[in-house]
Amino acid sequence: MDKVITVEQLSELPQDSYLLIDIRDEYSFLYGHIDGAVNMSAEQLSDAGLPQDKKLIIYCKSGIISPQTVDVLCENGYDAYDLSGGYIEWLRIKLENREITERVEESIRKKFRQTLWSKFAKAVTTYELVKPNDKIAVCISGGKDSMLMAKLFQEMKRHDKFPFELVFLVMDPGYSPENRMVIEKNAASMSLPITVFETDIFQSVYNVNKNACYLCARMRRGHLYNKAKQLGCNKIALGHHFDDVIETTLMSMLYGGQVRTMMPKLHSENFEGMEIIRPMYLIRESEIIHWRDYNDLHFIQCACRFTDTCTTCTDDRPVSKRQEIKQLIAQLKKVNPQVEMNIFRSVENVDLNAVIKFKYKKDVHGFLELYDN
Length: 373
Hints:
The chain is of the alpha/beta class.
């Protein structure tokens, strides 16, 4: 018996006749999943008390490991089926010929005006991120943050208070065909005229065992700067948000032994005349997720080839330092809901009279210099 079912066949089944099970990790499931699915790892299924009177339809990211799970369930007497192509195939069909520009833009102007648009405009004004005659490369990785940033920049351009130019820049460092497809279809559906250029970064760092992520990030940043400069841009815009700022600050203290935050803008050290700007600096990640889900949007989870299968098809991924910090902040918020804002304010209110040492550029200063005076 053929134990495979297609996405089209799934859509024709009565909803009460099957249980749809996503066996990817919890983080991937929360980032995006098929409507109506429940999340269980392959190991959890044996003790989950699954119904015997329904079809069990199993999927992973792209159908790599789900067939094995289906075989085990069938051996145990369940009527189990593999969803052909997995989440990616469902997503491909969902994004096919989709046009959602008007709805997405209206949501920014109305429903999310205070939480997204106003925060974006405030960061641009407060930190002087955009100035007349700037040409900005809006860097799109394909995730929710950079896609929203691009739409916010389009909204800013629509107001046209002063002249500036935008280039929506996508660097392909060696995406899987599935990730490249999702980025291009999302851009088309939201009327984002992207400029795509290709590099071999993922291939270059493939055999690097130590600090591969750090090296990859530096190489990607360098390629973005270089391409943006070729296109006549003087700034690159990145989609880091408020939560990234808070997490980076804590990571620097707990793992780096220094008080250092993510700045709203920086001059490039290696590309003269170029700047990084972060216009999402004041926007909460929870509001980005709210905007994504409100508009029924689906983005790539991770561009990295190393995690392209392991973070979406298995459960044995080690917890990253950033995930550890996210979990720590979540615990602290249970006691103090203002903990994130207090961390943010702490780097706005540094009292140099109450620190032992501090750096300014390359010089180190200590409290003893002025203590006796």
